[in-house]
Design goal:
Blueprint (H helix, E strand, L loop, with lengths): L16 H6 L13 E8 L5 E8 L2 E12 L2 E6 L6 E6 L5 E7 L4 E7 L8 E3 L2 H33 L2 H28 L4 H8 L20 H9 L15 H14 L5 H13 L6 H15 L7 H12 L9 H14 L12 E3 L6 E3 L7 E7 L4 H20 L4 E7 L4 H11 L4 E4 L7 H4 L7 E5 L5 E3 L8 H15 L1
Parallel strand pairs: 1-7, 11-12, 12-13
Antiparallel strand pairs: 1-4, 2-3, 2-5, 3-4, 5-6, 7-8, 9-10, 11-14, 14-15
Helix pairs in contact: 2-3, 3-4, 7-9, 8-9, 9-10
């Protein structure tokens, strides 16, 4: 089946090119030449040019163009080498013709056609692409055999012929073992080939059985801890070329955004350290992953995981381990950490007191008998604040009627016009604690970093932050349930 690419995904990837080219490291053939000249012989095509698109994360990016110099003959040529990685040859109509490797030998020829039938392909002067093509042809042939076996199994099952079914199941098993042996031989024969490293990265690590303790019990966490610790054993994170392999993106997302997604912050920080240790401190890969992890945990939507961003900045950026980060960005990181620190989950919130709508009675964030206190900053002139406050009131009233309201709301009218704020509160009949008037016992705007309205913070009975960002109002009851469950799990 042919594959087509989004036009918008085919644009020049400038982020890493100069750095990676400078870091050019051994990978395929041992030939080193200046520049590149790759010739493609494409049967049955009328394209005037074809594109060389490199893989990066979940997309393909245009790196070079091969122009037609004769019928069916295209040349990609230049004075500088291309970045090493996994490439796709793409037609003018954005159809995939070929997947191949560019390593440090960038002078070779590839013959193919437009049918995507690798059995008709051949390559000259590129040992690594010859091995990759051998794998593609072997996989194609094995796939045909596997489908044939499955068809026979299905047919014989329908006829009740158990012996024949078992025979072809054994054939299928033998085929899997044959392919496994083939891939292992490919990896062992040329361990430094990028394609070999790609195949090795797809192999899951073997997890040993958990040890039995002296009392006969089994460590229930052993296998999970082992898997998390050894997850990257088959991935060469010191090789910068992995940023141009699709396997890196899938494994990175599985590890950090699935397996570690809901782990405790200290656990995530531990595995971030183990992960970064696999890349040399002065390498491109170390820079790439520190920047990526910093960004991912800065914008995370998972409650509490902004603490991982806090950890990375404090232990990498602010300890001088990221010399590539410019002074302005470092100041922004430092400012963000200073703002975040007092609001981190588990930190105790200082008491905030402000006058209510009478102007005479000062109310406190500490004066609540309920399990939780929602500190709610809003602006009466803000349309979103009005909409979200209405949702909060609906939830508040419904739980009050049901006798299950387990929180109080401390609503701070962040408005310089005191009379307007008082009228707004009265008109909307907010039933909770309403304070405002730009008078308080502390600079709450600075402490809570109120840069947008509405803003939400939630305290538990110990006056500790358990939520430091706004979530959907209707999800608050579920949040409280999950929080209480987590507290039970800790016990």
């Amino acid at each position: 089946m042919s594959r087509r690419f989004s036009f918008f995904a085919l644009f020049f990837l400038l982020c890493f090119s100069s750095h990676l080219t400078a870091e050019n490291k051994k990978g395929g053939d041992n030939k080193k030449s200046v520049g590149h000249e790759i010739i493609f012989h494409i049967k049955d095509t009328k394209d005037s040019l074809v594109f060389l698109a490199i893989h990066h994360r979940d997309n393909h990016y245009l790196k070079d163009t091969a122009f037609r110099i004769a019928p069916g003959k295209y040349v990609s040529k230049g004075d500088k080498p291309l970045d090493e990685g996994l490439y796709t040859l793409v037609s003018q109509s954005l159809k995939s013709y070929l997947t191949f490797i560019i390593d440090n030998n960038q002078f070779f020829e590839y013959s193919l056609d437009t049918t995507n039938n690798v059995m008709n392909f051949s390559v000259k002067n590129s040992n690594e692409n010859s091995e990759m093509l051998r794998f593609q042809q072997k996989s194609t042939e094995a796939g045909q055999r596997a489908r044939s076996y499955q068809d026979k199994i299905k047919a014989f099952e329908g006829e009740g012929m158990v012996d024949s079914v078992d025979y072809y199941k054994e054939k299928s098993k033998a085929l899997n073992e044959e392919m496994t042996a083939f891939i292992n031989e490919l990896i062992e024969k040329n361990p430094n080939y990028l394609f070999s490293k790609l195949q090795k990265a797809y192999i899951n690590i073997e997890i040993p059985d958990p040890p039995i303790n002296e009392d006969g019990s089994i460590d229930q966490n052993f296998q999970r801890t082992y898997y998390l610790t050894h997850y990257w054993d088959n991935v060469d994170l010191s090789d910068h070329r992995f940023v141009y392999l699709p396997v890196l993106e899938s494994k990175y997302n599985e590890y950090f955004h699935k397996m570690l997604q809901y782990q405790h912050v200290d656990t995530i920080a531990h595995y971030v350290d183990l992960f970064l240790e696999r890349a040399a401190p002065d390498s491109f890969m170390f820079k790439y992953f520190v920047d990526r992890l910093t960004y991912d945990y800065q914008v995370t939507k998972v409650i509490g995981q902004d603490a991982v961003f806090n950890y990375i900045v404090k232990n990498y950026h602010l300890k001088g381990k990221t010399p590539w980060v410019d002074e302005d960005l470092m100041k922004k990181y430092k400012k963000r950490i200073d703002e975040m620190d007092p609001l981190m989950l588990g930190k105790k919130c200082p008491e905030l007191t402000m006058p209510d709508t009478s102007g005479n009675v000062w109310r406190s964030t500490y004066e609540f008998p309920e399990k939780y206190m929602i500190i709610w900053f809003f602006d009466p002139t803000c349309s979103k604040c009005k909409k979200e406050s209405a949702k909060l009131k609906t939830l508040y009233d419904s739980l009050e009627r049901a006798g299950t309201r387990n929180f109080e709301v401390y609503a701070v009218g962040n408005d310089s016009d005191v009379e307007r704020w008082k009228k707004y509160v009265k008109d909307n009949k907010y039933p909770w604690i309403n304070v405002g008037g730009n008078t308080a016992n502390m600079d709450y705007v600075k402490f809570f970093n109120v840069i947008a309205n509405p803003s939400m913070f939630v305290l538990n009975k110990n006056r500790e932050f358990i939520l430091n960002k706004q979530i959907e109002i209707e999800n608050l009851p579920l949040f409280f349930e999950e929080y209480e469950r987590s507290q039970e799990d800790k016990k």
